[in-house]
Amino acid sequence: MAELRSVCVYCGSSNTVDEAYFRLSRELGAEIAGRGIRMVYGGGQVGLMGASAHAAHEAGGEVLGVIPRFLTEREGVYTAIEHRVVETMHERKQMMFDESDAFIVLPGGIGTLEEVIETLSWIRLGLHRKPVAFLSENDYWAPLLTLLDHQVEENFTPPEFREIILHAGNAKEALDMVIQSARDFGLLAGKIPV
């Protein structure tokens, strides 16, 4: 049975966050590369995006960055890796989705939240079953996970949907979780369905 080929990393672009978040991002990038998995991300050189991509590349990993043209000056294009410039945010998200077998979500802002909510919504709609794991530092994702629990309690979301949303405290655990989830759902036997 094959392993995951590509993991998409959703994360923030802010350069002014706590160093602990940068450390976590670098650990994830290095862990992905160390396992021979390609990292797919939003293409910029700033914030946690840049930190994770640089760490993956420096560890000898394959990295694909996908960035909309209008962000190339603001976020910079990491030219040492494979990068694709697209026209819109929608194209960016679709390409990142298409090029990835699983998703790991580092801390981030509204853009990160928007990306992962769309990915989760597509699972809920039955459009895919690619694994999603939230990777927290300082319990960053705890409020969102509490909201998801509340949605279950209020019958807006079925418990089985909430159960597939993974939460990890370190990079190794996050990768182990998405790999195991993919195995559990038979996604590693062949091409992962869209």
Description:
This protein is of the alpha/beta class. It has helices spanning 19-34, 47-58, 72-75, 89-98, 110-124, 142-153, 159-163, 171-184, and strands spanning 6-10, 38-41, 63-68, 82-86, 102-105, 132-135, 165-168. It has a 7-stranded parallel beta sheet, with helices on both faces. Helix 2 links the parallel strand 2 and strand 3 (63-68). Helix 1 packs parallel to helix 2. The model is unreliable at 189-194 (pLDDT under 50).
Record keyword descriptors for this entry.
194 residues, alpha/beta, Rossmann fold, seven-stranded parallel β-sheet, 7 strands, disordered C terminus
Number of strands: 7
Q: Could you state the order of secondary-structure elements as H and E? A: EHEHEHEHEHEHHEH
Q: Please identify the oligomeric state.
A: single chain
Q: CATH first level: which class?
A: Alpha Beta
CATH topology: Rossmann fold
The strands making up the biggest β-sheet line up spatially as 4-3-2-1-5-6-7
Q: Give the overall silhouette.
A: globular
What's the Cα radius of gyration?
16 Å
Counted by DSSP, the helix tally is 8
